[in-house]
Design goal:
single chain, mainly beta, Chitinase A, domain 3, 2 domains, eight-stranded antiparallel β-sheet, seven-stranded antiparallel β-sheet, 6 helices, 15 strands, elongated
C-alpha cells in the first residue's frame, strides 16, 4: 500500500485563511438577519472595529485561544443581505485554527464559549481587505461555537490503549464517537469519495500527520486508504467526529514507509459523495 500521507490525500486549497469562509453558495440561501446592513445599538464594538452581539449564551467559561482550533457552524452574508457561505446549509460543522482565518473571525471566536451563538459585523479591513474574488465590504456572520479543539500536538489522554467505553468491530477496529453528525445523514460506502479533517498519533503520543496542522481538508476515495480507514469511515455520517484505534494489521502492517504499531486517529467527516 502506498503511503497514506504522500499518495492518498488530496489537499483542498492553500490554507484555511483562504478557504474559510469564502465559498460561493451552493445551497438554498439562508435569509439574512434584519440588522445585516448595520450593527444595532445594543451590539458591542471592540478597539479593532469588530462589532458583535450574543444571540444565545454558551456554557462554561472556557474560551478559545489563538493557538486553539475551533469547530463551528456559521452563515455569512454581505451587508446587502446576500449569503455567500454556510456550514448549516452543508449540514457539516467546520474546524479550523483560530490564528489562520480572517482577523475578524479570529478575534470574534475568542470572545465565545462553547454553545454560544454570536453575530459578528466584520469591517472590510478585518475581513478580506478588498481581495479579488473574495466577498467585499463589511461581512456579517452568525457563528455557533460547537467545540474548542486543543492543538493536535497534544495527544488524546487515551492514545496509548483502547478505553473500556470504545466500540469494537469484528475486525479489531475500535472507535468512539466524539461528536454526533447530522441526524439521518447517509454513511459513505467503500466506493465513496470523502472530505475530512483528521489527526493521527502513534501510541506513544507522537503526532505523525494532521490536516488541521496543515490548514487543509483532505479528500480521497475510501477504497484507496488503509483498511482501518475504509472500514471506519463507513460507520460515520457527515458532521460526525470519531476517534479510531487501528491495529497494525488494519494500518500499515509494518511497512517501511508507514508509522508502526497501532495508530490513533481523530477524524471529522465533512462530506461524502458517491463514487463512480
Amino acid at each position: 500500500m502506498k503511503s497514506f500521507v504522500a499518495a492518498l490525500i488530496v489537499a483542498l486549497g492553500a490554507s484555511l485563511a483562504a478557504q474559510q469562509p469564502a465559498r460561493a453558495p451552493q445551497f438554498e440561501p439562508i435569509p439574512a438577519p434584519a440588522d445585516v446592513a448595520k450593527p444595532p445599538a445594543d451590539a458591542v464594538k471592540t478597539a479593532s472595529g469588530l462589532t458583535s452581539k450574543v444571540l444565545q449564551p454558551g456554557t462554561g467559561t472556557a474560551k478559545p485561544s489563538a493557538e486553539d482550533f475551533v469547530t463551528v457552524h456559521y452563515t455569512g452574508w454581505t451587508s446587502d443581505g446576500k449569503m455567500f457561505d454556510s456550514s448549516y446549509a452543508r449540514a457539516a460543522a467546520s474546524t479550523f485554527p483560530v490564528n489562520k482565518v480572517i482577523k475578524g473571525w479570529g478575534e470574534g471566536v475568542q470572545l465565545m464559549t462553547v454553545g454560544e451563538k454570536r453575530r459578528l459585523w466584520i469591517p472590510q479591513e478585518l475581513a478580506y481587505a478588498g481581495q479579488s474574488g473574495r466577498p467585499q465590504g463589511m461581512l456579517v456572520f452568525d457563528v455557533e461555537l460547537v467545540e474548542i479543539v486543543p492543538s493536535p500536538t497534544v495527544p488524546p489522554a487515551d492514545v496509548a490503549a483502547v478505553p473500556a467505553d470504545a466500540e469494537k468491530t469484528p475486525s479489531g477496529l475500535a472507535y468512539k464517537v466524539l461528536r454526533p453528525g447530522a441526524k439521518g445523514g447517509a454513511r459513505p460506502t467503500k466506493t465513496s469519495r470523502v472530505t475530512v479533517h483528521y489527526s493521527g498519533w502513534t501510541t506513544d503520543g507522537k503526532l505523525f500527520d494532521s490536516s488541521l496542522m496543515r490548514g487543509q481538508t483532505a479528500s480521497f476515495g475510501l477504497g484507496d486508504v488503509i483498511e482501518g480507514w475504509t472500514e471506519g469511515l463507513q460507520l460515520m455520517v457527515p458532521g460526525e467526529k470519531t476517534r479510531f484505534w487501528i491495529p497494525e494489521r488494519l494500518a500499515y502492517k509494518g511497512q517501511a514507509n508507514g508509522p508502526k504499531g497501532m495508530l490513533v486517529f481523530d477524524v471529522e467527516l465533512l462530506s461524502a459523495t458517491a463514487g463512480r
